[in-house]
Amino acid sequence: MARLEVRKTPKLFSGGEFVRSESGRTYQVDGWNVPRSSRKDLRDAVRSARAALPGWSSRTAYNRGQVLYRVAEMLEGRRTEFARLIGRGGTREVAAAIDTWVWYAGLADKLVQLGGTVNPVAGPYFDFSIPEPTGVVGVVAPERPSLLGLVRSLAAVLCAGNTAVVLVSEGDPLPGLCLGEVLATGDLPPGVVALLSGFRRELLPHLGAHMDVNAIDASGCDDQELAALEAAAAASIKRVVRLDGDPSPYRALAFTELKTVWHPVGR
User: Cβ distance 231 to 155 under 8 Å?
Assistant: First the structure.
């Protein structure tokens, strides 16, 4: 007897759960009904990311590296599915995304040595500057490559101990939304990452103006979107940076703050 295929229903990933937009709105992408996130969806995601921040940022860098490596393991197990979602060039893109997770997993416990320093002082003290997480980071993923571009930004943000609220590609959202299934089956604590789909013209102003978002990776923004995002972010004086290129310690260090600590020299 013939049976109907059970098709995937794309959902947002927020607070460790798979949810539909609270508004019930969707938009069409290649025959899929993709959730159209609302301002409330964004607020809920930021609230969950803020609640998850203390636990995630207080983990050892070594443990965060283990979690990122686990994400790479889970994505490796589903590489065929993701390559099919992406289409042409998908095999290479998924392989590069897996390698990016592994690269940042290895960087996690080396970031302090690369970004920190011992400062010379005229006194009987040791003076250290150490990078610490910025906080909740908004990530605007590139339209293309929809998976690899997202992973390059997200892995760097997590490597530094931040939590993330991600706007996935508007025109090709499925690989980004399905990444939530990989994160949920790994060791990443609930709330550390939110993946939202929808219309950027509706969401970017609220992401930029949200007082509980500490910085924004605008890698996926064009010049016009970047200008609008910077204008919205000006009131809260939050950092807005646009990064691109291959994995680099500087992508992770862009979302850290240097904390300087003094210690008296022991005798």
Answer: no
Domain ranges in the chain?
Answer: 12-38+59-264
Q: How far is CA 177 from CA 90, 130, 245, 249, in A?
A: 16, 34, 22, 26
* Model pTM score: 0.92
* Contact (Cβ atoms closer than 8 angstroms) between residue 180 and residue 150: no
Can you tell me the distance from the alpha carbon of 26 to that of 197, in angstroms, rounded to the nearest whole number?
Answer: 9
Provide the CA 150 distance to its chain's centre, in angstroms: 7
Residue 245 CB burial class (10 angstroms; 0-12, 13-18, ≥19): exposed
* Tens digit of each residue's pLDDT (9 = 90 or more) over 171-230: 999 999 999 999 998 889 999 999 999 999 999 999 999 999 999 999 999 999 999 899
Q: What is the pLDDT of residues 20-75, one digit of tens each?
A: 999 999 999 988 999 999 999 999 999 999 999 999 999 999 999 999 999 999 99
Dist. CA 126–CA 266, nearest whole Å: 10
The token pair at 133 is 């997480």
Superfamily of domain 12-38+59-264: Aldehyde Dehydrogenase; Chain A, domain 1 (3.40.605.10)
Phi–psi pair at 162, nearest 5 degrees: -90, 165
